[in-house]
Amino acid sequence: MHRGERRAKRPNVVMSVFVFLLVSVLAGALSAGLALPFAGLAGVTTATAHDTVQYLPQDLKTAPLAEKTIIQDADGRTIATLYQQNRTPVTLKQISPLMLKAIVAIEDDRFYVHGAIDAKGTLRALLRNQSSGGVQQGGSSITQQYVKLNLINKARTPEEVKEATAETYERKIAELRYAIAVEKELTKDQILNGYLNLAFFGDRSYGVEAASMHYFGVHAAKLTLPQAAMLAGLVKNPTGYDPIDNPVRAKERRDVVLRRMLELNVISAKQANDALKTPVINPAKVRVVPSGCANSKYPFFCEYVVSKLKANNAFGKTPEERENYIETAGLVIKTSLDQKIQAAAQTSINQHSKAGDQAVAAITMVEPGTGLVKAMAQSRSYGSKKGQTAYNYNVEKSYAGGFGGFQNGSTMKAFTIAAAIGKGVPTTYRINSPQVISLGGKEFSTCNGPTSVDSYNPKNSTKTIPDPSMVDAARASTNTYFLQLSEQIGLCPIATIATNLGMYDAQTLKPLKQVVSFTLGSAGLITPLMLSNAYATFAARGMYCSPQIITSITSIKSKKTIPTPGPNCHRVLSPGVADGVNYVLNQVMQSGGTGAKLRFGNSDLAGKTGTIDENQAVWFSGYSSKLAAAAVVGDADPPASNLIKQVFNGKKLKDASGSGTAGPIWETAMQAALEGLPTSKFVKADDKIIRGNVKDLPYLKGMTPAAAAVKLLSMGFKVQMDHGPQVDSDAPAGTVAWTNPRQEDGAPAGATILLYISNGSKAQPPTPPVTPPVPPGTIKPPPGIPSCMPWDPKCHPRRGG
C-alpha cells in the first residue's frame, strides 16, 4: 500500500486531539503535563480518536549528531575543518548554569514541573490556531522542540526535512506522542542537554558550545549572564536576532530574556541591570570557523586528503554517502603534512616563480622509508580568479582537482640505471654514443614482445665524450647512451622497476607504455608526487613505500581509532642495486655534472635533470637519505607549447632546462627543509656494483685485430669488430686503438668486446737512434769481417799498365 493511500484512510485527528486535550484539562488529567498516554483516548473521547492512536509512533529513534571533522597536520595543528553543521557536543556539566537558566526561562519556564507537554501552553496555542484556521502560535515545550530537532537531524532529503518541519496538525500530533516516549526514556537534564546540543544558534553554529565559541570566543562553561541570555534569545529566530547583522534586534531580544529571568526570580535586579548595560557582542571576538578546503591554508593538500577519504569504501557505499559521513561524523584526520617543510617548499616556489606566470611550477617532498608526503606546493594559488586554479599540479587525475602530470624527460633514466645495475652491468660500462644515432627499425624487447619504430634519430642535448661510461652518461644526461643501454637490457626490466616504484600514467591511471623512447620519459604523464616518491625508494635503499597522506583517523566523541591504511612498505630493489643508483646519481651532483650547481651542504645528494621534447616541461628530482623532492616547471594550459619565450618568474624565458629552471626550486626547498638536520651520507656502493662482476681485460692496444681476437677468445670473451670508420689514435694504423669496455674497466665473463681500429692519425714516426761520434781507430771490426770493403777504392790502389 502506498504511503499516501494509508494516510487517506486515517481518521481526522485534529478534532480528536483537541477534544482530548480540552477534556483532559477540564478533568485535571494534565495537571502534571499529559500524564495519560494516548491509549487512554478510548475512555475519554470518541472511537475516532481511539482509532487515531494506532497510527501514532511509539518511540523516537534518534540519529547521531552531525559533528564537524577536523583535518590536522603531522603535529596535530588544525589545517582545515569540514562540516555541514558546526557543532561540538558537550555534557550538561560543560555548560554554564546561567545558560541553563536562561534557556529554560525563555523557552519553557515550567520545564522541570510538567510532563512531555505543557498543557496550558499547548491548549492556548490550539485554541488560537483553531480560531485562525491555521498554525499561528507554538506552545511547544523544550521536550517537543527536542523531538522536532531530532526529526530534522534525521532527515536526509529535502522532502524529509519539509515533512519534519511542516506546520500541520498531523506533524504536531506525532511530535506530541514522540515527546511522551522521550520523557519515559530520558531525564529532564538529559533532554535539556540534548536540546542545547541540537539547537541552531545562527551563522552556521549548531549547539551551545559552537555558538559560544563563535560569538564570544569562550567555551559554553564560561558564558556570562548577558552572553547566556543572548544565546537563549537566538533560538526563537536565529536569523532575525543575528547579533552580527542585527545587533539592535539582538539586544532587544537578549533584554527580553534577562527581564524574564528577573521576573521568574532566577537572577537579582542588580544582575539584570548590570547585564542590560552590557553590549550585546564584541565583533573583535567573533570567531569564524571556516568550512571546506577552499578556506584552508593548504587547499590543494586538503582536497587531496578529502579525495582519498572519499575513495575509502569504509565510509559508505556511494561517494555521496562517504562525503556525508566525512562531514558529519566528527573525525580527527591526522595527515603527514609538515608545516616547516611545506613552508620551505612554498617559499621556494614563491622565490623562483610568480603567480601570474604563463608557466607553472610545482614541487612535492616525501620522506624516504615511510612514504609520508611532507609537502606539496605550486605557483598558482587556489581559486577561480585570473592567475588562480582549482588544479593540483602535484597529483594524478584520480579526482576532479588532479591535473594529471607532465612527461618527465630524462628523470626516467634513473630506472634504466637501476635495471642495468640489477642485470650486472657495471657503472663503468661504456657505449659509443655519438651526438645522433639512428634507431629506425631497431627492435627493443618489451614484456609483451619486441617493439620498434620505422624512423627515429634521437640526439644528445649536451656534449659528451665519444664512449661514456654509465656514470659519464648520467652526469651529462647522454640520450644516445641510455637508448642503446635500454636496447641491450630490454625495456621490460626498466618498466617493471618503474612500476614497482609507483610510476604509472597519471592521466589515464594505466601502466606506462613500453616505447622505444621509454628511458627519455615519453612513456606517459608523471606527477611530482610519483617521481619524488619513486626517487625516495633509492634513498631508502630499495624500500618502496606507497605515498601516505593520512596517518590516522579518530572519532572525536568516542576517541576510538578508525582503521585506515597505514604505512605500506616493501622491498622492490636490493640494497646493493639502490646503492649503485645512489652512487651514479650522486655523481650528477659533482663538478661537471648537470646538477653540480644545485649541490649544497655536507650531506650526500643525488639527482637527475629532465627535459621533454620542445621544452614543454623541465624537471629536477633529487634526494638525500632524509628527504626526496621532485620539482617541475611546465606549460599547464593545453595545448602545451615550448617554455622558451613564456613568462616565468615575471620574465620571458630565454632557455629552459632541468638544472637551470626547475633545479633552483628543488635546491632552495631542500636546503631549507634539511636545515638543522644531521649530515647524512649514502651507503657506499659495493665495488662489484661499480665495476660489475668483471674479469680483467688484457692490454690490446697496437695489436693486430686478429691477434687481439685470438687473445680475447682464449679468455672466454666474444669479439666484435667496429665496422665504422677507423678512429683517431696514436696506435699504428690498422691495429687496435681501444676496446669497449675499456681495458681498465674489465668486462663480465663471456661479454662481447668491441674492437676499435686505429687510423694511425696520431701516430708519431719512429725517431732514429742518435749515434755519438767515434774517434778514428777506436772501432775494431768483428772477427771474420774484412777491415777494408771490396768497393772501397782506398783499399785498392790503382795499378800501372
From TrEMBL:
* Family per similarity comment: In the N-terminal section; belongs to the glycosyltransferase 51 family. In the C-terminal section; belongs to the transpeptidase family.
What sequence ranges are listed for the domain Penicillin-binding protein transpeptidase?
A: 362-625
Q: Does the keyword Hydrolase apply?
A: yes
State the Gene Ontology terms under molecular function: penicillin binding; peptidoglycan glycosyltransferase activity; serine-type D-Ala-D-Ala carboxypeptidase activity
Q: What ranges does the record give for the region Disordered, renumbered to this chain?
A: 760-801
Task: Return the Pfam families for the record.
Answer: PASTA (PF03793), Transgly (PF00912), Transpeptidase (PF00905)
Q: Does the keyword Repeat apply?
A: no
Residue ranges, compositional bias (Pro residues):
765-785
Listed GO biological process terms: cell wall organization; peptidoglycan biosynthetic process; proteolysis; regulation of cell shape
Q: Which SUPFAM superfamilies match?
A: beta-lactamase/transpeptidase-like, Lysozyme-like
Q: Which domain of life is it from?
A: Bacteria
For this protein, the record's CDD domains field holds: PASTA_pknB (cd06577)
A Gene Ontology cellular-component term: outer membrane-bounded periplasmic space
* UniProt keywords, alphabetically: Carboxypeptidase, Cell shape, Cell wall biogenesis/degradation, Glycosyltransferase, Hydrolase, Multifunctional enzyme, Peptidoglycan synthesis, Protease, Transferase
**Ranges in a coiled coil:** none
Q: What is this protein called?
A: Membrane peptidoglycan carboxypeptidase
UniProt xrefs under Gene3D superfamilies:
3.30.10.20, Biosynthetic peptidoglycan transglycosylase-like (1.10.3810.10), DD-peptidase/beta-lactamase superfamily (3.40.710.10)
Catalysed reaction per UniProt? [GlcNAc-(1->4)-Mur2Ac(oyl-L-Ala-gamma-D-Glu-L-Lys-D-Ala-D-Ala)](n)-di-trans,octa-cis-undecaprenyl diphosphate + beta-D-GlcNAc-(1->4)-Mur2Ac(oyl-L-Ala-gamma-D-Glu-L-Lys-D-Ala-D-Ala)-di-trans,octa-cis-undecaprenyl diphosphate = [GlcNAc-(1->4)-Mur2Ac(oyl-L-Ala-gamma-D-Glu-L-Lys-D-Ala-D-Ala)](n+1)-di-trans,octa-cis-undecaprenyl diphosphate + di-trans,octa-cis-undecaprenyl diphosphate + H(+); Preferential cleavage: (Ac)2-L-Lys-D-Ala-|-D-Ala. Also transpeptidation of peptidyl-alanyl moieties that are N-acyl substituents of D-alanine
